[in-house]
Amino acid sequence: MTDIEEIEKQLKMRLNYNYKWEKIQNDIRDKKTKFIYQTRNWDDVVKVIKSTYEEDPSVNKTSLFNYAANRRYNFRSAHWVESIFKSHPKVKENPDKFDKFVDFYILDIPFDHKTSVYPWAYNKPIEYAKENRENLINRLYLNQSRQQRFHMKNRLFIVVYSKEWNHRKIKSELSFLKKIIYEYLDKFDIDNLYNFDSNTGKVFSDIIWAIK
């Protein structure tokens, strides 16, 4: 991996601004902000957003900034979390870079991964969720975005939870995430996974808790 401290620094620059979606994520808005994939430096992201609404005065600059900045933050965090998984000896990279449903293999078991903020609307304490992971897993599957990567296949959820209720901040704390992901993988056992049947066959899933 690239210097993890520098990556964290870049991610945390997003935290200097309020986090607000304003609009529901969909393919059209994603297409308009696809430049986030080519801009690795936060300052460059800000410049591209600024030039975009300067070229088109009809664009709401606040909405554009929030949407692009949030997508970029989530994408870059997910990208590096995936890299953390792939750096572990039990994990093999999926050779198909365009596969939307498999990020990597753990002991030859295919998995997608997703970092999820503890749901505000879950209305159950974290202690309940930890003791009843299948309840939260089912909710996370059913409430996933209907765009692009929606699926009912194997998935590992990294659920971030801040005791200060600043859950999203943990997505930027890659050193911390690496520690808990490695601890999970070191003890990985298929018999400990939650599984259920879907129209695609048996599905394996689990939660990696990132609580801070």
Q: Which secondary structure elements does this structure contain, and how are they paired or packed?
A:
Elements: H1 4-12, H2 27-32, H3 42-55, H4 61-86, E1 91-93, E2 104-106, E3 109-117, H5 126-131, H6 133-142, E4 155-161, H7 174-186, E5 194-198, E6 201-211
Parallel strand pairs: 3-4, 4-6
Antiparallel strand pairs: 1-2, 2-3, 5-6
Descriptive notes:
With 212 residues, the chain is an alpha/beta fold. It has 2 domains: 78 residues, no CATH class; 120 residues, no CATH class. Helix content is 40%, strand content 18%. A 6-stranded mixed beta sheet has the order 1-2-3-4-6-5, with helices on both faces. The relative contact order is 0.14. The model has no long low-confidence stretch (mean pLDDT 89).
Q: What radius of gyration results from the CA coordinates?
A: 18 Å
Q: DSSP helix count?
A: 7
| Residues in helices, as a percent range | 25-40%
The total domain count is: 2
Largest sheet: number of strands, sense, barrel closure:
6 strands, mixed
Largest sheet, spatial ordering of strands: 1-2-3-4-6-5
The percent range for strand residues is: 15-25%
Order of helices and strands: HHHHEEEHHEHEE
| Quantity of strands, as a count | 6
Query: Which stretches of 5+ consecutive residues score pLDDT under 50?
Result: none
Structural class: alpha/beta
**CA-to-CA gap between the ends?**
24 Å
Note the main attributes of this structure.
globular; six-stranded mixed β-sheet; 7 helices; about 210 residues; about 40% helix; alpha/beta; 2 domains
